[in-house]
Every structure is written in structure tokens, then in C-alpha cells.
Amino acid sequence: MELQLQKPLLFFDIESTGLNIPAASIVELSFVKVFPGKSEPEVKTWRIRPWDYEAGKQRHIEEEASKVNGLKDEMVSDCPRFLELAPEICSWLRDSDFAGFNSTKFDLPMLAEELERVKKYCRERIAAFNVPEASKQKAREMLASVEVDLHSPVMVDVQNIYHAMEPRNLRAAYRFYCGGRDFENAHSAEADTLATYEVLKAQLDMYKDPAPYREQVLKNDVASLSSFVGKKYVDFSGHLIYDDSGKKDPAHILINFGKHKGRSVRDVYLTEPSYFAWVDQGTFALDTKAQFARIKKEIDEERKGPASRDQLNALKDKFNGSLF
Q1: Coil, helix or strand for 205?
Q2: What is the structure's pLDDT at 186?
Q3: Could you say which residues of the chain have pLDDT below 70?
Q4: What is the four-CA torsion angle of 106, 111, 112, 115, rounded to 10 degrees?
Q5: 48 neighbors 16 (Cβ within 8 angstroms)
Q6: pTM above threshold 0.85
Q7: Beta-strand (E) ranges in the chain?
Q8: How far, rounded to the nearest angstrom, does the alpha carbon of residue 73 sit from its chain's CA centroid?
Q9: In what order do the strands lie in the sheet with 42-47?
Q10: What span, in angstroms and rounded, lies between the C-alpha atoms of 285 and 234?
């Protein structure tokens, strides 16, 4: 069925250096613009050099992101930066509604972040005393060309429609894996628990062999099944997670929220110990507070010995080589 449109609908998707929007950059951006009364959409894709404006250098593509999008640093090093493409990108965005898959949670915020970076860079160039007037004028022209309203257009998120029309709850799983039948007393603890047990057994039957559209199989052992959980949380609320090293000491535990997201909890404690007091006094789950307290104790015991190289480097970074 063709879309009934009153104005163009712009489908878009982004590949990025990572998932932490404030620290990530776009490496690939694709637009598919559908127009009212036209059967064929217009398509445009850009490969982009991810740029850190503060550091003035290319941003690194994280390993996990590279596994997903297949892009590596050297593959985008000769591509234009978002700054250079922004006027053209904005011309596609104007006068359109938007659509994507999970775009409201990531793609649209990431696109807005890149545009705000361009605006900030231009404003700083205009305000600087040591920038030639010709460069300031170029910045003014760039600033005018990237003015676009991303908040007013209607946003269609196809993933949300999918989840609404095809629920991914226990009742739906039981129907799908257990022969289309429903189970009685749904949402009673015992019925839900028994249904979960039946669903897992049915999953092992369904996914024991590879399929043309799915090579992955389920192995009938608990360790293998547990791998589908994903990131290993230190606390049950997910405020602390282990990194990918497999090690469980404080240097390999990462903060998973707020201003220090992505930093090792050990590094944060060494440079900002008051952060632990803030957590202890805050409205966090008691388990989260207990894990922070346990880690603090481990680090304190570690620090009773001779200063390690990591500790000395942390202090060096904190004071930038100067004591005052």
C-alpha cells in the first residue's frame, strides 16, 4: 500500500562511532525521501569523517560499533566532515516529516547533536578575536544554512508500531512458541513462571538447527543461554557494568549513567571521591549503594600499598603536571 502524504516523509538511518550520543559522531547517514503523488523516492547516502570539534581531530570508531556497521577509522579518514555536508543535509530535512526504525531514541537525537555542534563551532568562530573577517563571514553563512526545526515535524517510528502491533511479552511468546494457544491465569506468579519454563523448552526445539535467515542456534546448556542477557551488570539496576575484558576488578567496572558514563569506577574514585558520597546520599537502590561501597572499600585497601602506576598517572592527569 502506498503512503498517503500531505508533505514529504523523510526516512533516515544513522551509523555512528558509538551509542553514547554526547561522545559519538555520525559515520554514515542515509535519507530516503518520499513525496506526495510520486511513486519513486529520492535516495541520498553520505559517508562522513567523524569529527571531534573540541580536540580538532577525527573521532575513533568504537570496536562494538565497528562490528555492527562494518566501518573502521581508515575507511572514513578521507570523507568530508559533517560540518562540510550540513547545508546539504539540512536542505533534505526542511519541509518534511520524519520516519525511521528506533529513530526517536537514537537517530534523531544523534542528528540533532551533530547540527548543534556545527552551530556551536560557527558561533565560536564568529566571536573569536583572532579569526579573519572572511572566515567569520563564512561561519555566518554556514550558521544561516543549517537553521532547521527538528522538533515540529511529525516523527513516525516504525519500531514502535511493530512493538505495539506485535507485543513482545510473555503471553505473546507463549502463543508463538507453544502452538498458538494461550495460558490461563496470565499475570499470576505461578502461571507466568510455568509459562516461562514452557517457552524456553520450546525455544530450544525451534532453534536447535540453523535456518536460511538465521545461522545462530541455541545450545542446550545454561551458560550458553545466559549469554543472551548481554552486558553483565554489577548492580541489579544497571548503574554499574563490567567492560568486555572479562575482569571484575574496579578498573574494569564502568559507570553506566550520568556525567561519568563509560569511565571506570576506579578512575572516578581516584579523581573525584565525592562522587561516591553523592551516590550514597542519593535516591539510588540500596543494592547500587552497596556495590559502590564495596568497590570503594576494595580501592581503599589497594591504596594502602605502594602507589601503582595507574594511581600516579591519575594524579598526574588531575593536576596536569602542576601542583598549583
Answers
A1: helix
A2: 65
A3: 185-187, 229-231, 305-324
A4: 160
A5: no
A6: no
A7: 9-16, 26-34, 42-47, 51-52, 57-58, 97-100, 155-157, 240-242, 253-255
A8: 18
A9: 42-47, 26-34, 9-16, 97-100, 155-157
A10: 13
Pairwise CA distance, residues 154 & 160, whole Å: 14
3-state percent breakdown (helix, strand, coil) of the chain, nearest 5: 50, 15, 40
Q: Contact 48/79 with Cβ under 8 angstroms?
A: yes
| List of residues 6+ apart from 145 with CB closer than 8 A | 86, 87, 90
Beta bridge partners of 99: 11, 156
Count of CB atoms within 10 A of residue 250's CB?
A: 21
Residue 233: what pLDDT?
86
Spatial contact of 49 and 28, defined as CB atoms under 8 Å apart: no
Residue that is written with C-alpha cell 578521507 in the block: 78
CA atoms within 13 A on the CB side of 135: 12
Which tens digit of pLDDT belongs to each residue from 198-253? 888 999 999 999 988 888 898 888 778 877 766 688 988 889 999 888 788 899 99
Backbone angles phi and psi of 232, in degrees to 5: -90, 115
Kindly state the cell numbers that stand for 82: 559533517
